[in-house]
Amino acid sequence: MSGTNAASGAAPCRFAHYFVICGIDTETGLEPDELAGENFEQSPLKRTFKSKVLAHYPENVEWNPFDQDAVNMLCMPKGLSFRTQADSREPQFHSFLITREDGSRTYGFVHTFYEEVTSPQICSAMQTLYQMHQAENPSSATPSSSSSSSSSMDSLASSLDEADSPSSSSCRSAACGGYDASRDTLYVSKALCLITPMPFMHACRRFLSQVHRAVTASLPPPLPLESYVHNILYEVPLPPPGRSLKFHGVYEPIVCQRPGPGELPLADFPLGQTFPLLGVENLVQLFNCTLLEMQILLYSQDYQRLMTVAEGITTLLFPFQWQHVYVPILPASLLHFLDAPVPYLMGLQSKEGTDRSKLELPQEANLCFVDIDNHCIELPEDFPQFPNKPELIQELSEVLLRYGISPVGGAPPTSSQQALRELEDDGRNGNLGGEQLAVLELLQGNATLERLQALAKRTGVRVEALRGVGGEGEAQGGRTAVDEEELRNAKLNVQLREVFASRFTMMFADYEAFVIQSAPDLESWLTNREQMHNFDKASFLSDQPEPYLPFLSHFIETQMFATFIDNKIMSQWEEKEPLLRVFDGRIDKARLYNVRAPSLRSSNYQRCTILKESGESEETQAIEQRLLKIDHTAIHPHLLDMKIGQGKYEQGFFPKLQSDVLSVGPTNNNRWSNRTATAQRRKDRHRQQTEHLTLDNDLKEVEGCLVLQNSMAFWEWDKSSPPPLKPPKSLPLSYMQEARSLGKNLRQPKLSDLSPAVIAQTNWKFVEGLLKECRMKTKRMLVEKMGREAVELGHGEANITGLEENTLIASLCDLLERIWSHGLQVKQVSLPKLRCVCVCFFLTPTVSNGPERRKSESSLGMPSLRESVIQDMRHIQSMGEIKTDVGRARAWIRLSLEKKLLSQHLKRLLSRQALTKKLYKRYAFLRCEEEKEQFLFHLLSLNTVDYFCFTSVFTTIMIPYRAVIIPIKKLSNAMTTSNPWVCVSGELGDSGVRQITKNVLEITFDCQNLGKLTTVQLGHDNSGLLAKWLVDCVMVRNEITGHTYKFPCGRWLGKGVDDGSLERVLIGELASPNADEDCGRGCRTPDMQHSPGQTRRASITSMGGRGYKPTSAQIQEAIGEAVNSICKHFHKPEKERGSLTILLCGEVGLVGALELFFHNGFKSARLFQKTVFVWDFVEKAVAYMESADQMGDMQETAEPLGLTCVSLCHYVSAINSSPRNIGKDGKFQLLVCLGARDRLLIQWLPLLVECPVIQRMYEESALLRDRTTVNDLIAVLQTLHDFPITLEASLVKGIDL
């Protein structure tokens, strides 16, 4: 127990916790591993046998208990492997990790080699197994492969590590997959493992390699192996953060280093191997799937490849961490884990020659299968792409090419040095290996050493023993070639990780403003964690560029993002989590450069600015500096108090170590370690005090300049951002030095220059800069809204367009926050609170004392709508989706901007001068009267364009709508006894059928945001005595934004009147707030043939008047304009397009123009008969075609024409069979829309023209009977076939085709 206590006491700071040996237990013999699922029809040399932990030192570490089963499975995931002298026995290396219940990880590094089997019982058992197998499978003795015993060890070797098969006659039996104890030598795998708390992969690999080399060398090592194992277990500490450590292996020193507190976390697995395995594009897709927490399965024969890819991907997640099942190497006995219905990241070892199609995998829609060996990836069915993926791939490819690595998966290395090195080291070419060549050159260049070599030959000492003296080939700066390779890998790791880290820094630069910190203490927060909202997702998404939204809306729902936010909240009571600390430091650093004028949010890709032109960053330079100057050196291995005669050296066999000396920690060097730790603490404390004093001096120097007025006023703004008001106390010295390096664009006046005149002048420049920025932002917003036409007219440059509306408005919110925060009297406001004070400061109940303006809409038949700051604020506060004050402030800005009241609201707020003087200093922007007026004027210019920045962003909120039906009041049929209903549809959905109380003609209802309104379905049930209803229009208003839509009707609803419609689909547009007073009250009744539709242009309206017949030229012009409008619609950028429904069904649309064409020369008015409609002509034509088809007249018609007849009859029948009572004109409208959508209009027109019915229903001069005019119409309609016309659900509702 004393040993255990000693071990556990020093465990947290030790480099390694355990040294483990796994292999065959000669006492229990060969035990088949049934859990591995091996095929017993295979040769015994290819079967899997159970391995065991032969020894581990120390026995136990208190805070990291030894899990024998887990370590055994991961050291030898496929159990024992047997070989003969005919097989390759190259040692292999792989790593693994164990995740404990608390989420912490322990890393294992395994060096596997082959040791000769000396146990007669094991050899005899293998011989017996082979004879039994040969008797049961006589055909298996046929030679089928040059490699006889491909077993679990093959999985550790990549295809590049295959060795030459010997050609001696002793391997004949082995070549047949057999084993003969009298002729063959049997070897079995054995594993040496180091278990460490941190992933120092390169250092552990070199240490284990040297230990194995000591076993296989002809001469024993300088010290017993126990000395080296004891040294790394107890006397080698973890390197402190930001420091390097050198310790000694058996032959050469080993160096490792640890990143500093402000650097990216430790990642020792080389990304330079991960990217070539998959290719940049596949790896970015895998990275995306990992962020979205899908099920990810890695597949490879090589265990180390599985670990390298898994660790590489999780490393790139910074600042986030994978929170689900993480098993980079899944042992064969745990394959049932793949059926888990949860996100996971697992690695599965593939058997050599196994067909991918035979692999049984769970059929999950979100499974990402990664075949590493074949450099391919199978992606899930549907998932959002990572923002700016092509640009990210391009930047990563440039970094890889800079290091001579191809960005294409599976491509050969582009560097010729590696190929040359392999050629030189190839013994088959007659060349000496790299190490032997170095020794040879050393001997040839020194006469003394040449004589020593001759003496060594005479005495029988081999030259290879000199390796322990000479070490590996020296490279520049005294570093070995291996050190240079590790340095290169470390630099590449940092540069690739920086590219990914910069993407997250840009996307989540303002995440802190949307964190909801409502709990007073940690205990109450932990208690109510499940019921609390921690992040204002709706407000955060409303600020993001539109192309980012598909990815971000999924990502912020993941567990890794939730954990990240939880860590942020807990950091106010506990020490910050390391990843969060580094990430927040990077955001602070970005703000240091951009505090004056933050970079505009944009979806344009911004490359990583940390990497310089040479590709070097401060972190890569720090890595190289730590290697040049080693900070710490561990105690050298030394002789231990061991028993004499035990553990005798025997070449090729790992000795049995003395457990008594390895289970107890050091007793004579505790004072050394304590003294070293104390000295180091003293040294670190002195360094921190020095940095703290320097930082304090810098802060005092800055504050000394600001003693009279606000600090921001004393910095001259010259196309760049000045430093912050007051550098945070947590910023390290390097940040202050970087701020000083901005002197190219910033000039700080001397203390002696701080006269009142200088202060006033510099403050004026700052205020002027804010005003200039406001002018530029409003101009950008106007130019972007006006589109390309504004650029063509000279109102802007082409390069300032292309920014999303979301991005521009979020940038405007940033500017308003900075204007509102400038010169505040409140000094003790923390950063998060300051951001919400910026805009919300005046939004208090005191504002309601002012007069409220009511928007008069009585002329439109709508009650007036209150317009006040308080009313809008109440709407925002009632939105449960918004959780933070910053989110509410920005939502209020969006709402005011959409209502075109932003300038008016802010003017009212600023009119309270007494409160302004109380809250703001004299030099504040909001107290500069002239600049304030110009600022409000620039905001007023935004009223010239229509914004839907509130409606289009908060799509899930509940919004109250008011609908008013306006009948023709001058007629007696203004009211109806039937039960009316209405259904309002918009771009985001519909309200469903809403019943209206009889004779009320008004309804208010709440439903989820419908977006911009497009159609209204109005109808009644035709009950009662007064069932006929003459409706002028329907008005619908969004009660939050105030947007009012007018849906003209001017038609009857009822059986036996007009076209017999009980339901009409009305097309609407946004009503102008400056409409004429009598536009809704005294409207004349439009001509019945033109409904449904909207208010026409003057030319077409005049055509629809009573007693007026448009000319042929006017009708053809109307059709041309309608088709041209649709073509323009599709040629515009998608964000500039209007409503296609209006262009199709509006009175200036295609349906209205074709109605004019069909009504020309139509015999509609009959004496003492019902009015005949165009739909009657269509029905008669279809009836004629059907009767002709039944009589056989259509059989002689050409086949395409016959099919066209069938389609027309089918569509007309489907429209007549619809349960909707939309009337005859509504049916004709529907037929035109469906024909335009399905590209059938130009096929139907010739059928109608050729039908004999046309002679009875149309005059001789009708356009429809003029073949030339009809052909011209067909040619015009042909142009619509190039565009994908889609119809709203409200138009085609109930139609079954």
TrEMBL record:
Domain of life of the native organism: Eukaryota
Domain UDENN: 33-575
GO cellular component terms listed in the entry, alphabetical order: membrane
Stretches assigned to the PLAT domain: 959-1067
Chain spans, region Disordered: 134-170, 665-690, 1077-1109
GO molecular function: guanyl-nucleotide exchange factor activity; small GTPase binding
Compositional bias per record (Polar residues), positions renumbered to this chain: 665-679, 1091-1102
UniProt cross-references to SUPFAM superfamilies, sorted A to Z: Lipase/lipooxygenase domain (PLAT/LH2 domain), RUN domain-like
All copies of domain RUN, residue ranges: 803-955, 1141-1292
SMART domains attached to this UniProt entry: dDENN, DENN, RUN, uDENN
Location relative to the cell: Membrane
Low complexity bias: start-end ranges: 138-170
Record keywords, A-Z: Guanine-nucleotide releasing factor, Membrane, Repeat
InterPro entries: cDENN_dom, dDENN_dom, DEN5A/B, DENN_C, PLAT/LH2_dom, PLAT/LH2_dom_sf, PLAT_RAB6IP1, Run_dom
Family: Belongs to the RAB6IP1 family.
Protein name per UniProt: DENN domain-containing protein 5B
Species of origin: Oncorhynchus tshawytscha
Gene: DENND5B
